[in-house]
Amino acid sequence: MTHPLDQFFAAWRKDDADAQGSAQRAALSAVLSPNCTYADPNTPAPLVGAEAVIDYVSMFSIQMPGAAARVLTVDTHHGFARATVDFINNETVLMRGQYFAELEGGTLSRLVGFTGMGDNQ
Fold it and tell me: What CATH class is the domain 4-115?
């Protein structure tokens, strides 16, 4: 069974905004709880609600056509998860980060992302 974090980050890749926008929205809606929160170093404040998160992911896809997020590992325990994610473009790793998630009923209720691996580089 695919982890919701794998599904969430797989949806970040969208080559054609017009043709795949609805597919991306559906994929994200399936794994995000309606009242989820999301924060990473690029959000000005935590995003609240699945629609806000979906809009944010869509913005990434539009601004970086062909770019993708690839989950390297997922660890879980007691309803929490940690994922190591590479953001890639043309098979070049642009950034590696860690995401921490809280799961609720099989969906992502809270996601917090960090740039890097905690090594301050």
Answer: alpha beta
